[in-house]
Amino acid sequence: MSKIKTTFHCQECGAEYAKWQGQCNKCNSWNSIKEEIKHTLTENIWDHTNSNLNKASNNPTSIDEIQIQNEFRIETQDKEFNRVLGGGIVLGSITLLGGEPGIGKSTLFLQISLKIRNKVLYVSGEESENQIKIRANRIKYSNKDCLIYSENKLENIFAQAEKIKPNILIIDSIQTLTTNSIDSTQGSITQLKTCTAELINFGKRTSIPIMLIGHINKEGNIAGPKVLEHMVDTVLQFEGDRNHLYRILRVKKNRFGSTNEIGIYEMVTDGLKEITNPSEILIGNSDQKLSGTAICSSVEGSRPFLIEVQALVSTAVYGTPQRSTTGINTKRLNMLLAVLEKRAGFHLASKDIFLNITGGLKVEDTGTDLAIIVAILSSNNDISISDDYCFAAEIGLSGEVRPVSRVDQRIKEAEKLGFNKIFISKFCDIIPTKKIQVVYLSSVEELVDKIS
Ligand code: TYD
Ligand code: MG
User: Fold this and answer.
1) What stretches of 140-268 show up as alpha helix (H) in DSSP?
2) CA-CA distances (angstroms) from residue 147 to 101, 110, 130, 171, 208?
3) Any idea which architecture 280-451 has in CATH?
4) Can you give the residue ranges of every domain in the chain?
5) Which of 1, 81, 217, 394 could make an SS bond with 366 (beta carbons 3.0 to 4.6 A apart)?
6) How many Å lie between the centroid of ligand 1 and the Cα of residue 244?
């Protein structure tokens, strides 16, 4: 016997309340709390568990007796995607791909479905078959075993999947699904949780890997609850600037591999192109020596690549100087400016400062600090930095130059691309190389003498 009750859920973060209120206490968003039906069991829970125990076929096993079974993976034709997942799609696994609208989530999954040599059921609750066909024509690959199904009722999707027995099931997007088993509006927290739980059961029972697309909210989380991220096996994030061509596929969680991998793509007219040599593309080519640019040997995930940092420092026209960044956290820039002011005596408080990572990429690596400072000083003093210098170090609050992870890999990458000098922290332990000269720095003050 079940009794129907209602509760109130925040549609942004999933917090639950007994009654309605205007603002969510947990995530502070306004008007995000909606009433939903809650199903509660009125039976005694122990009666329930005991009856289940009698039926249980599965008993606890000693850890010593457990035999490891290697998970079986389906390799896609997309090498970046395989690498990000840790070697391919694991049978029976659930993968969630999040990203802003228009970033290319549907394109990525459709492209994988068209290139793969397996049977794929691509379910779209957002677009018609016609729209998907137009996109497929742009991608220019074809796979007769890629079946397109425009549907959002979970029961119908399961029925078709049972009949067709695809090797991969793709759902675009989880927010459009509805299930008859609960009485709640499409896209609500309860619908999302129930549909995901039913999909997980279906995946585990049939061993069909399921790949879900999820929209993200303004904070950058998968729209709706964080709980979705807890439920699935793998969470991927597709990011980049919509106005730029490059996209990064990051792993936020992976039960079957490392979370350190990233995949890099370029959005071209016929789909997403895998970028296997990011460094060569991300560094601007210019014959003239310009002030305000510095090259950083960065590591994103476990992959080294070179990026170009550009800075423009100019006298502020209005009262409050502007601090504007693309690709780097503005707070990090403010911290570096404070360090320059206090430790190296540069007066930048009355200057407008603009900072940019070329290619529209977002970098999280603190190893870019040194290159940021060099680019700012270069623009401020209007001196150009030699184009065969490269930088990789973090800056501490007292102006010290700190070591960063994977320094050897960073040096090798710079060497491979023909740089002659790399500036790193004095405290790095490195394997000496012959081709590239390594310059050690211990503080920001030393920097000025050594780069000129
Ligand atoms: P889409 O996959 O629809 O994004 P999402 O599912 O994340 O909302 O991609 C949308 C953008 O990609 C759209 O603005 C057009 C662009 N695009 C290309 O540039 N080249 C292509 O080959 C395709 C298919 C799309
Ligand atoms: Mg889409």
Assistant:
1) 154-164, 189-206, 227-231
2) 24, 11, 13, 12, 15
3) 2-Layer Sandwich (3.30)
4) 1-42, 73-274, 280-451
5) 394
6) 12
Fold of 73-274: Rossmann fold (3.40.50)
- Contacts of residue 192, defined as CB under 8 A and 6 or more positions apart, other chains included, come to 174, 175, 177, 224, 225, 228
C-alpha span between 430 and 440 (Å, rounded):
11
105 lines ligand 1 (CB under 6 A): yes
Amino acid at 445: E
Task: Say whether the peptide bond before residue 173 is cis (omega within 30 degrees of 0).
Answer: yes
E strands present in 126-274: 146-150, 168-172, 210-215, 234-239, 246-254, 262-268, 271-274
B/e letters for 103-142, b = 16+ CB within 10 Å, e = fewer, are: bbbbbbbbbbbbbbeebbbbbbbebeeeebeebbeebebe
Give pLDDT tens digits for 12-59: 778 889 889 999 898 888 888 888 777 554 444 444 444 545 555 678
Going by alpha carbons, the residue nearest to atom 21 of ligand 1 is: 271
CA distances from 157 to 167, 193, 202 (A): 14, 17, 11
- What sign does the dihedral 86-88-93-96 (CA atoms) show? positive
pLDDT digits (tens, 9 = 90+) for 219-246: 666 665 567 888 999 999 998 877 778 8
Element (H, E) at 34: strand 33-41
Give distance in angstroms: CA of 333 to centre of ligand 2.
Answer: 34
102 CB within 6 A, ligand 1: yes
**What whole-number distance in Å separates Cα of residue 103 and Cα of residue 173?**
14
- Please give the full DSSP string across 302-339, using - where no structure is assigned: TEEEEEEEEEEEEE-SSSSPPEEEESS-HHHHHHHHHH
Q: Is there an atom of ligand 1 within 6 Å of 228 CB?
A: no
Query: Which helix (DSSP H) or strand (DSSP E) does residue 353 occupy?
Result: strand 351-357
Q: pTM value?
A: 0.78
**Alpha carbon of 103 to ligand 1 centroid (Å):** 6
d(Cα 404, Cα 412) in Å, to the nearest integer?
A: 14
Q: How many angstroms separate the CA atoms of 355 and 375, rounded?
A: 9
Q: Which residues of the chain have pLDDT under 70?
A: 1-4, 39-57, 217-226, 284-288, 452
- For ligand 1, whether the C-beta of 107 sits within 6 Å is yes
- Which residue carries 């079940």 as its tokens? 2
